[in-house]
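Title: Comparing notes on inverse folding

I've been comparing how different people in this forum approach sequence design from structure. To keep things fair, I'm posting one structure and asking everyone to reply with a full sequence. Here's the target:
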């Protein structure tokens, strides 16, 4: 029996049900296909391509330790699968499911076509704690509000125990041809990724390291630390989760085990804020699966009429971290340099774009898509629709973050701004989040020249707040 394991966003050996199933059948061919066409308008950005390159190298090396190897191909998935099946007498094809609407359709087509040709096909859940179709409200409909969704999930049986990585993997008598990793052309031509290399270790071992460090360290203090961008108070598991280098089941059970070890009651660790965030990820997938239009269109239809502004100068300033609003600029620069941005700052930078600049959330989502290492169609869509107030359980539109008071609260000594906006590093803490309020002598002492070595704010925060509220009233026909 020869089984093809089609690896996609499950780039790990442990808790990989498709791989374990294949190993039980006999010889296994692990295959990754770079199929950009299938992703439609959501092809990976440069940061993710860099990550994928590293992650595939790590996976291949892990497979080789078990006597196997990763076959790499580029092209249309259906064609590649059909060719390998025909050339190598494959009996069965297995994979772990993805949930993006176009991918679901493609996978369904492939499944039907392979089955009709007598190939055994099976797919598995390796990505979510609950399948999106398993969870529904009392009326049998998808949830659109997080808290009842989460409460419902808590009443469901615990996620199954993660399965161990196979100790050895039987290889086929003849391997299919493989592309070299370099031939996939994932690495950028210009080496702008040095800072990412310092910040991340893509692959299953890097994911396990982050998971262990977090679960043994910060997890119980997460409620306090998670909002402080200057410290490492969150798990930084998001790109690892996106590429499937760790499963949410593994994370969930790691928290459970640790909770029991430190003597917490079941209810204490189950409702832990960190696990709740994992359910936000689940909720994002639930919404994407049931409301497939939401990556480009608002869930709340009245927002289709929202009078968004078009201003490429403002959009560029936001993207480049030169809006003159320190916390927003710090976040946008962190994103550009490391491929990641702290969640609190994502919310503040997002609110600034859609509310103070009145630029459509889709433009923000697109930039994040191109620059985030963890760019994920479900979570990015949820995050942006939340910022814009047009999604499920979104922040009400009239809740407009003030980046100055947010900075004073969550970056009280300005350490985060000082790190990412070094032009302001010497500025007194009192003015670090609003340099435009600093007297000239204070600016001079810190070598800050507004409009010269750091921009004046591109908009007035107060006036644009009023403008956003007016636009909202106009949309609702209440002005
Ligand atoms: C505008 C905007 C865009 C976003 N885009 C993405 C995206 O493309 N990909 C992505 O993974 N997350 C996205 N998020 C959610 C969140 O910012 C990141 O998941 C989080 O910052 C990742 O850091 P962490 O792994 O240290 O998270 P932790 O705080 O340690 O949380 C653990 C895990 O829970 C999940 N999670 C946490 N918060 C959220 C959330 N609000 N929504 C969904 N899942 C969550 C993530 O998988 C995360 O790795 C976005 C948020 C906003 C406001």
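Reply #1:
Here's my take.
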């Amino acid at each position: 029996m020869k089984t093809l394991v089609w690896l996609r966003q499950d780039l790990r050996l442990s808790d990989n049900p498709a791989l374990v199933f294949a190993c039980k059948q006999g010889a296994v061919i692990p295959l990754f296909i770079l199929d950009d066409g299938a992703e439609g308008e959501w092809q990976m950005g440069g940061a993710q391509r860099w990550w994928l390159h590293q992650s595939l190298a790590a996976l291949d090396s892990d497979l080789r330790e078990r006597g196997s190897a990763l076959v790499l191909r580029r092209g249309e998935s259906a064609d590649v699968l059909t060719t390998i099946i025909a050339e190598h007498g494959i009996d069965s094809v297995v994979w772990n499911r993805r949930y993006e609407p176009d991918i679901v359709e493609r996978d369904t087509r492939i499944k039907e076509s392979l089955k009709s040709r007598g190939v055994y096909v099976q797919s598995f859940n390796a990505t979510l704690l609950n399948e999106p179709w398993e969870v529904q409200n009392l009326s049998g409909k998808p949830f659109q509000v997080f808290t009842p969704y989460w409460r419902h999930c808590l009443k469901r049986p615990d996620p199954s125990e993660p399965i161990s990585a196979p100790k050895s993997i039987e290889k086929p008598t003849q391997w299919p041809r493989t592309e070299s990793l370099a031939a996939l052309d994932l690495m950028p031509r210009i080496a702008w990724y040095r800072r990412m290399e310092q910040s991340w270790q893509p692959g299953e071992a890097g994911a396990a390291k982050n998971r262990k460090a977090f679960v043994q360290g910060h997890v119980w203090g997460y409620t306090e630390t998670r909002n402080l961008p200057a410290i490492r108070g969150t798990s930084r598991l998001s790109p690892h989760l996106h590429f499937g280098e760790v499963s949410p089941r593994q994370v969930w059970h790691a928290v459970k085990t640790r909770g029991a070890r430190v003597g917490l009651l079941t209810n204490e660790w189950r409702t832990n804020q960190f696990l709740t965030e994992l359910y936000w990820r689940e909720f994002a997938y639930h919404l994407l699966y049931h409301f497939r239009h939401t990556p480009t269109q608002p869930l709340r239809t009245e927002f289709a009429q929202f009078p968004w502004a078009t201003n490429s100068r403002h959009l560029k300033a936001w993207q480049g971290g030169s809006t003159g609003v320190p916390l927003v600029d710090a976040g946008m620069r962190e994103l550009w340099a490391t491929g990641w941005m702290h969640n609190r700052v994502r919310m503040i930078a997002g609110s600034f774009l859609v509310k103070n600049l009145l630029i459509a959330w889709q433009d923000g989502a697109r930039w994040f898509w191109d620059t985030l290492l963890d760019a994920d169609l479900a979570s990015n869509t949820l995050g942006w629709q939340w910022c814009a107030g047009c999604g499920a359980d979104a922040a009400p539109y009239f809740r407009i973050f003030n980046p100055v008071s947010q900075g004073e609260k969550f970056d009280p000594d300005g350490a985060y701004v000082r790190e990412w906006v070094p032009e302001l590093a010497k500025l007194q803490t009192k003015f670090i989040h609003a340099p435009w309020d600093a007297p000239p002598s204070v600016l001079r002492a810190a070598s800050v020249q507004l409009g010269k070595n750091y921009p004046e704010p591109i908009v007035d925060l107060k006036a644009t707040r009023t403008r956003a509220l007016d636009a909202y009233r106009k949309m609702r026909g209440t002005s």
